[in-house]
Design brief:
Layout: H1 2-17, H2 19-53, E1 56-61, H3 67-75, E2 79-84, H4 87-93, E3 98-102, E4 108-112, H5 117-144, H6 165-196, H7 198-203, H8 206-210, H9 216-248, H10 255-258, H11 266-293, H12 297-320, H13 335-346, H14 351-377, H15 379-382
Parallel strand pairs: 1-2, 1-3
Antiparallel strand pairs: 3-4
Helix pairs in contact: 1-9, 2-6, 2-9, 6-9, 6-11, 6-12, 6-13, 9-11, 9-14, 11-12, 11-13, 11-14, 12-13
Amino acid sequence: MRKVVLVFKKEMLEAIRDSRSFLVVIIIPFVLYPILFITMGFFLQMEKKREARSIYRIGVVNYSLMPELIVHINAAEKFEVVEGNSPLAMFRKDKVKLVLEVQKNNDISIYYDGASKSSRSALKKIDILISDFKELTVKKDLQEKGLSEKILTPFTISKNNIAPAKKMGGFILGIIIPYILLILAFQGAMHAATHVTAGEKERKTIETLLVTDVRRSEIVLGKCLSTFTFAFFAAVAGLLGLIIVVQSGISTVSADVLGFSLAIPWLSCVLIIVAMLPLLWFFSSVLVAIGSASRSVKQATVYNTYCLVIVLVLALFSIVGTTTPGTTLFFIPVLNGALLQQQILAGDVKGIDILATVGSSIVYAIIAYLFAKRSFEKEEILFRS
C-alpha cells in the first residue's frame, strides 16, 4: 500500500504543477454555477418583463360576423388587430402572429405558426380572451332567458399543490444539478486520466516508472486514485459554487420568477457526494484504461470525448423523463446517479433505488478497474505506437 501512496503522490504532484489542472478541476466548476444561475435568472426576468409588455399583431377574417369579440380583444390592449381576407396571405403580407377566421355559423378557426415562440405565446393569450368572451356571451344569454348563471358551474374544482416550497425547490434543482455535476466530475477525471497515462507516454516518463520495484497493479491503482481525487474535487467545487449562489441569494432566479425559493440542505449535499463516489471511481477506471491504450494525448482526448457524449446523453435522460422512473433505470450507469441525486434533492429517496444505484455502481466500478488493470499489464497495449 505504501507504494500505491507514492504513485498517488507522484501523479498528484505532477498534475498540480500543471496550471490547467487547477483551472479545470477547481476554477471552472466553482465559477460555472454562479455564472449559469445568475445569467439564467437574469434572462428569465427579462423574458418575463418583455412578455408582459408585448403587443401581438393578429389578423381577423370576417370581422363583421362577430364584432363584439373584436371589441373584447381590443379592450385587453394586448393585441393589434388587422383585418384581412386570407389567413396565409396575412402571415406573409401583414406579419401577424396568428389569424382568427370567423365562420358564418359563429365557429372560430385560429391559425398560428407552431414553430414560432411569439405565435405560440399569442395563441395562449388569445385562448384566454376567447374563453372569457364565450363565458360572457353564455351568461348574457342566460340572463335574457331569466336563468341562473349557476347552471354553468354545478360544481367547482380547486387544485392544491401539497408539496412544500422546500420540496419544489429541490425538484427544480434536481433537474439542473445532476446533469452539470456529472459533466464536471467526468471532465475533471478526463483531464487527470489523460495526464497520468497518455501524457506520461508522451513525456517518456512511463518507462522509468515501470522499471521500479512497484508492481503494475500498484501503479494502476495509484493512477486511478489520483484521477478519482480530481473527479471528486471537481464535483465538490461545482456543488460548493451552487451552494454559494443559492444560499447567499446572488442568483437572480428569485421567488418572484419561480413562485418559490431555492434551497439546498447540507445533508443533501453530503448524500449527493457520497452517492457519487462509486460512479467517480467508475469514471476514473474507464478513463485510465482508455489513456493506457491510447498512443498519444490527442488520441486519448478523442476517445474520452466520445465517452463524454455518452455521459451527456445518459444524464439527459434524467431530465426528459416524464414519469416516475422504475427500479430498472437505477441499474443503468450514470443515469442511476442522476436519478438518485434528483430524489435526494426532492427529499423523496427510496431505499430500493439507493441499493440499486450504489450496488450496481460499485459493480461497474470494480469491473472498470479490473479492465484498467488488465490493460496496463499488457505491454503490447501500453507501448504500442
